[in-house]
Amino acid sequence: MDSMRDRFASVASRMLDEDPRVAVVLAEIGAAGFAETLRRHPGRVINVGIREQLLIGAGAGLALTGMRPVIHTFASFLVERPFEQIKLDFGHQDTGAVLVSAYGSYDAPAGGFTHMSPGDVALLDTLDGWTVHVPGHPDEAETLLRHAVGAGDDRVYVRLSEQKNGRGLPVDGARFLTVREGRRGVVVAVGPMLDAVLAATEGLDVSVLYATTVRPFDSAALRRATETAGPEVVIVEPYLAGTSTAAANDALTDVPHRVLGLGVGRRELRRYGRMEEHVAAHGLDPASLRERIEGFMRARVAV
User: Fold this and answer.
1) Which end of the chain is more exposed for a tag (fewer CB within 10 A), N or C?
2) By the 8 A CB rule, do 96 and 61 touch?
3) C-alpha closest to that of 33 among 21, 47, 43, 19
4) For residues 70 and 79, what is the distance between their CA atoms, to the nearest angstrom?
5) Residues of CATH 3.40.50.970 domain(s) within the chain?
6) Which PANTHER family does the record cross-reference, listed alphabetically (predicted)?
């Protein structure tokens, strides 16, 4: 199976062939995947070098001319380092683009903390008007990337990951999918967390929702699920724990409920390790998730 980044390069190259509005803007990272495409479209594949603020500024300039820029680098360099440019060049100027990241929370641990960005979605949450897609499989990444590029001139963030589920599901860029139905709580699995959540909840009487578009948050799907499964909600995200807790609380504001946000902790892990070791250290492996989910659901009975 190819990776999400591999799929991104091939799909973006095809979209350059198909749509004269599309331009790809890079900051050195990922440029090798567009070498052949650059020869076909020398004016629409732009590598600004290791200049992340310029990466965003160049993309915004293209948007002002009517282009649909697709801007790509690692998450820490795409969202955190040039955040002021995102806020002003896109938000303040009311322009749109598709930001496509890779290597988010801990996908490249050998790079150290400079190459980790567990807070990217939470940071974008401070800005107005961003759609956020978090695919869990290369097929979903392709679907959501095409959806993002075709979304008029909207501001869209597509968060790619080295982690992936075993199979892709028919995502539509808007709704949560119901993967499992139960009556003792709701677990929302975001993107590449689905396989771990399904393993962790095997045999538990809980509903599992699958979220690959987290902004806007599908409040209607969560409300429907809680009507039959009860108002205990666990959200398992591949980035900063609690990022979507407020959105879930807003969805259930008129209903007595409890929400537990599971994800990447705030404590910096100061050893490189392997990706799997970071998953376990943050309690996102199936065994840890089961213990935390069962403990949360049992607490309802004790109240």
Assistant:
1) C
2) no
3) 47
4) 14
5) 4-159
6) PYRUVATE DEHYDROGENASE E1 COMPONENT (PTHR43825)
Helix (H, G, I), strand (E, B) or coil at 133: strand
- Select from 39, 112, 46 the least CA-distant residue to 74: 112
pTM above 0.70, yes or no: yes
CB neighbours of residue 48 within 10 Å: 19
How far apart, in whole angstroms, are the C-alpha atoms of residue 269 and residue 109?
10
What is the rounded CA–CA span in Å between residue 37 and residue 249? Answer: 45
Token pair of 68, please? 């649909």
Neighbours of 64 (CB within 10 A): 11
State the Cα–Cα distance between residues 236 and 187, nearest whole angstrom.
7
The owner of tokens 């978090």 is: 134
Q: How many CB atoms lie within 10 A of CB 188?
A: 28
Give average pLDDT by consecutive 10-residue segment, the chain, 303 residues: 93 97 97 94 96 98 98 98 98 97 94 94 97 98 97 95 97 98 97 98 98 98 97 98 98 96 95 94 98 91 42
Neighbours of 17 (CB within 10 A): 11
In this prediction, residue 301 carries a pLDDT of 44
CB count within 10 Å of CB 52 equals 24
Rounded CA-CA distance 203/108 in Å is 33
Angle at 234 between CA 115 and CA 286, to 5 degrees: 65
Structure confidence at residue 25 (pLDDT):
98
* CATH superfamily, with its number, for domain 4-159: Thiamin diphosphate (ThDP)-binding fold, Pyr/PP domains (3.40.50.970)
